[in-house]
Amino acid sequence: MEIEELTTRDQLKTYFETGKYPTQSQFSDLIDSFTLKEDVMTNREAIILANRLASIDNAFIYYFTNNIENLKFPIVISSQDEEDQVITLEETNSLRVKQFLLGSAPYTFKTKKISEGNLKETEYYGLEYQLNQNYFIYRLFGNNLNTIPEGFEFGKLDNIGLPIQISKGDYGRRINVVNTSVKFVNKTEVSIQYRIEAAGWSDRYRDEDTVTDHYDIGDYLVFYYNADLRKTDQSIQCDIYDEDNGKLLTTGYLHAGQNQTSWNGGQIVEVRNARIECYYSAGEK
Predict the structure, then answer these.
(1) Judging by beta carbons within 10 Å of its beta carbon (0-12, 13-18, 19+), is residue 208 exposed, middle or buried?
(2) I need a surface site. Which of 122, 124, 131, 205 has the fewest CB within 10 A?
(3) Is this model's pTM higher than 0.85 or not?
(4) Strand ranges, E, within 90-180
């Protein structure tokens, strides 16, 4: 009897159209070719699979969490050519978890409703993530800090990977949000962005006005500037004022001929309304 091997899906689909019926041996071979949930891969199969995975060049999220217990932190990832993908961050006991993203860039990352675990009155979760290689973004949340509501946007991903870390800490006191209004005025022709950091809090680069939602565990703001001055021979000075009384608080210098992603802009303390003014340094127009 002639033995016909069914080796591909197309062969299997068209086999019955010929009026033939698979023999028991053919069915047995077919079942043996399936990979079932309870099957344990051989070392050879595992290596083949690992090599296939290593060739994936999609963007990815990799995260680890520590001591967050039963916190559930779902993130919705949207792309132009795939349905929304939901990845839920849970306790990993400091082990790193990597998940590839469906579709292609650009991606948007938003939180769904977070299911908080059990927190003491002075305990809070700390979120840390990195949109590009130059800086991290920090947030505290939990208890009275509703700082990461449903729909919170992470920002634009400039890397192929989005690292995220969530931990829990006891701060020994109740933490409250403090707001500072920041007005940005750029009097130059150079594109300038600024970024702000505080205790347990930091934000993305921007070139528009903003209002911070930092914390009273450290009511200070540290400023950084991002600007490319390689095509100009004019240096730039960025002054920060107290908008309420006009007092000059700090000054940052952006030097001609240089490209920096973190020019030091100085620090302000306990200011509710600030104004940044960037202009060409004295003697330069």
Answers:
(1) exposed
(2) 122
(3) no
(4) 97-100, 108-111, 123-132, 135-141, 161-170, 177-178
